[in-house]
Every structure is written in C-alpha cells, then in structure tokens.
Specification:
- This protein has a domain of 131 residues: Four Helix Bundle (Hemerythrin (Met), subunit A) (Up-down Bundle), CATH 1.20.120.
- Helix content is 55%, strand content 0%.
- The longest helix has 22 residues.
- The protein is globular, with a radius of gyration of 16 Å.
Length: 188
C-alpha cells in the first residue's frame, strides 16, 4: 500500500539521506540558514522529525523537547533507517483520515508538514555544507501547498522566519524558501 504522503516521502528520501550522509564530521559546528541551528543541531532536529512524524502518522502524541543528542553512533545510517520507517508509517491509507490529536490538524496536513520540513531542511543542510540540492517538482508543489495552508501559523509559532522578498532571479524553489524566511542566496 501507499498514500500520496508515503509517495512524497519516498521521493524525498534519496536526496535528503544523500545530503545527510555527505556531511563530514568536521562540518558539524558550521552555521546554517536556520540561525538557531548549527549543522549538528539541524541533523539532530531531522532525526527527531523522522521519529516523531512516524508516531504522528499513528495519531500518537510526541515530545518535541530537545532530549539527548541524537548525532551519536552511526547517525547517518540511523537517519536513512528512520526515513524508511517514516514512509512505511504513512503508507497506510488510514493515516490520512481524521485529525491529529497532538497537533489538531488534518492528518494530510501533518503529512505535508513533514514533507515540507524535509525539503526545506535538506536545503539548509546542503547549502551549509557546500552540497547541491534540488527537490523534484512534485515536492515543491507539496511544500507550496503546505505553506499556503500553514505558512502564517508557522510564522506566528516561530517555525518560520518572517517572509522575505525573493530576488528577481529566484526560481520556484527560491520563492518557497523566501516564504519560510530564508534568503535563497544564503551562503555560510
């Protein structure tokens, strides 16, 4: 079985896991476009996202407090495994029914949230570590839909920075990044 969300996660996984796998240990303390996160913090967040959104697929409440560091051991392999589990968790069509008890959002929006989170943070991590990252067009569509529904709420909650004006030469992805408060031409 699969769902729209599990198919989007399957489309996201190769590029995101590739970006994470290519991060060198000597890059873990570098800055990222997320002003509160160094590379290590962003990877830690991505590991937490992959685990927590598995639980959210099953309508379980999750703990978003920082907890112990996750960038330990073979964190690259752990992330790839967690993304496989994430896709599996969202593959059951019943995961898209109803409302998330922890977030109070339609389950489909929760699924789009994790797709958008992975797409945007993969870019954050890629530009912080000198890698290329270009998401597939359908991932841009899903991220744009999520931002249409939740962008203002995300800004109010501090998940996104204030929307910035995308430079005139920005493509669709650059315009989406600007909607999350990022400068599409950010460099370390």
């Amino acid at each position: 079985m699969s769902t729209e969300i599990s198919e989007l996660l399957d489309a996201t996984a190769p590029a995101v896991t590739g970006v994470v796998a290519a991060v060198r240990d000597d890059q873990l303390d570098q800055r990222t476009p997320c002003t509160d996160y160094r590379v290590r913090d962003l990877i830690d967040h991505l590991l937490q996202v992959a685990q927590n959104f598995q639980a959210l697929a099953h309508r379980k409440e999750v703990d978003w407090s920082p907890g112990p560091p996750r960038v330990t051991g073979d964190w690259r392999a752990a992330f790839a495994e967690d993304l496989r589990g994430l896709s599996t968790a969202w593959a059951d069509p019943s995961t898209l029914d109803g409302v998330s008890p922890g977030l109070g959002l339609p389950q489909r929006v929760v699924g789009l949230m994790v797709v958008a989170d992975l797409v945007v943070h993969a870019w954050d991590l890629a530009v912080a570590t000198g890698q290329d990252y270009r998401p597939e067009p359908r991932l841009l569509t899903a991220t744009g839909e999520f931002l249409d529904v939740m962008g203002d709420t995300g800004r109010k909650m501090g998940a996104f920075g204030p929307e910035v004006t995308a430079p005139d030469d920005s493509d669709e992805f650059g315009r989406l990044l600007a909607r999350t408060g990022r400068d599409p031409h950010w460099t370390p």
